[in-house]
Structures are given as structure tokens and as C-alpha cells.
Automatic annotation (TrEMBL):
InterPro entries: UstE-like
Organism encoding this protein: Pyruvatibacter mobilis
Top-level lineage group: Bacteria
Protein name per Swiss-Prot or TrEMBL: DUF1295 domain-containing protein
A cellular-component GO term for this protein: membrane
Keywords: Membrane, Transmembrane, Transmembrane helix
Record's keyword annotation contains Transmembrane: yes
Transmembrane regions listed in the UniProt entry: 6-24, 36-54, 60-80, 101-126, 132-157, 188-204, 210-231
Length: 260
């Protein structure tokens, strides 16, 4: 189990971070930068767990290193993307339009909710770091393999998308080359795979199997809430030829495109 004092400390720090970011959003009139905090929040959870419990087992250091690598890579990518956007993300613009008091409501519907999700999904990180005891073995190797594959796919997909968007000639077009020819959302698929990898490393000590709620929740969020389903609705409206692209390309799990 996760030490209660670690849970309390982590909850307090994440709550303080999200509250501070909410205060920052008020003069900016923009909450989009919370997306960049999403991966960084898990890095914070991992580092709190490591510093607070001072584990000596190599599994703890492995979970910390992998989480930090992913958090820095994705956080930097999302932060730079936010800096390049001239206005608030369309998702949050729509929420702001529907809610007259959105500036204040965003404390719990955006920042508070994201903080809570970070704590729940971060449970394997806390458990894997604070309870590391069993020797490294096959489950760790499998988890490491999944993490590396997922990390590389997410990073490569993001790089291909960024390069595509930098070309002004691609405005309004659909990216259908590289990994994006095999999946409409290869970055999300990679993210899902790497989180299952982190979970397997954390549960190599079998008392942590209950944290399976983390990768299940992450997968559900990507597939049904803030990932595929939300993006698809907007892309079909804004991108000419998206329906044809969707007809020949897998929505999630990469595989060769279908013939016309």
C-alpha cells in the first residue's frame, strides 16, 4: 500500500500547483496551458514519492527516471505548442462560451479535475517507488519494453505532426503520412502503451496490482473523453478529406491503411 503521509503530501502539493496555475489563468484569460502541466504533474508525483520515501531499490529509480523522461519530453512539447498559439484552445473557448462564470468555475472544472486525475492515475508511481522490494525481473523487462515502444511512438508522432503544421501549405489539410498513415492518433496510442508499461513495472511487487485503475482510466480518457472522440468531432468539421482519411486509416491501433 501507499503510505498515508505520502498520499497527503502529494495531494497537498498537486492542489497547490493547480490552484496557483488557476490564479495565473485569470489575468491571462486562457487556461490552455494546463495541458502542458498534465505530464509535468506526474513528474512531480514521482519526485515527491522518491524524495519523501528515500527508497534504495533500483525499481524506484527506474520508475522515477522513466516518468521524468516522459514528463519533460511531453511537457516541453505541449508548452512550446501553447506559446505558439495566438488564442485559447477551442475546447476551452467552447467551455467559456457555455459557462458565464467560467473564469471562476475553471478552478474545479479544469484545474481541480486535472489535479484529481493526476493523483489517481499517478497511484502506480507512488506505489512502485515507495514499495519497491521485489527483485527486478521479467515483468519489469516487459514494462520497460512497452514504455520504450510507446515513448518512441508518441515522440515520433508528435514530431511528424509539428513538422506538418510548420508548413503553411498544409493549412486545412490532413496529415496522412508516416505513423499517421497507420493510425489517426498514433501519439495517443503511444501514450497508452507507455502507461501500461509503467504500471507493469510498478506492480512487479504484486501488492500493487490494485493500481490497475491508473492505466484503465488513462486509456478510457484517451478513447472516450478528452482524446479521440473529442478530437474526431472537430477534425471532421475543420479538415477537408478527413472522412476519406478516416475510412482508410485505423482510429487507434496502428496497422497498414485499408485499400480504397
Amino acid at each position: 500500500m501507499i503510505p498515508s503521509d505520502l498520499l497527503i503530501l502529494t495531494t497537498a502539493i498537486i492542489a497547490a500547483c493547480t490552484f496557483g496555475l488557476w490564479l495565473l489563468s485569470l489575468p491571462l484569460k486562457d487556461v490552455s496551458f494546463i495541458d502542458a502541466f498534465w505530464p509535468l504533474g506526474f513528474g512531480i508525483v514521482a519526485w515527491i514519492s522518491y524524495v519523501a520515501t528515500a527508497p534504495e531499490h533500483p525499481r524506484a529509480l527506474l520508475v522515477l527516471a522513466l516518468t521524468s523522461l516522459w514528463a519533460i519530453r511531453l511537457g516541453t512539447y505541449l508548452w512550446s505548442r501553447w506559446l505558439q498559439e495566438p488564442q485559447e484552445d477551442q475546447r476551452y473557448q467552447a467551455m467559456r462560451a457555455r459557462r458565464p462564470g467560467f473564469a471562476w468555475q475553471s478552478l474545479y472544472v479544469v484545474f481541480g479535475l486535472q489535479g484529481a486525475l493526476i493523483l489517481i492515475i499517478g497511484l502506480p508511481l507512488m506505489a512502485g517507488i515507495s514499495n519497491a522490494a521485489a527483485p527486478l525481473g521479467l515483468l519489469d523487462a516487459l514494462g520497460m519494453t512497452l514504455f520504450v515502444l510507446g515513448f518512441l511512438m508518441e515522440a515520433l508522432a508528435d514530431a511528424q505532426l509539428a513538422a506538418f503544421k510548420r508548413n503553411a501549405a498544409n493549412e486545412g489539410k490532413v496529415l496522412d503520412t508516416g505513423l499517421w498513415a497507420w493510425s489517426r492518433h498514433p501519439n495517443y496510442f503511444g501514450n497508452t502503451v507507455l502507461w501500461w508499461g509503467l504500471f507493469l513495472i510498478a506492480v512487479a511487487d504484486t501488492q500493487n496490482w490494485w493500481t490497475i485503475i491508473s492505466p484503465i482510466l488513462m486509456t478510457w480518457l484517451i478513447l472516450r473523453v478528452s482524446g479521440l472522440s473529442l478530437l474526431e468531432r472537430g477534425l471532421r468539421k475543420r479538415r477537408a478529406g478527413y472522412d476519406a482519411y478516416a475510412a482508410r486509416t485505423s482510429a487507434f491501433i496502428p496497422h497498414p491503411p485499408r485499400r480504397s
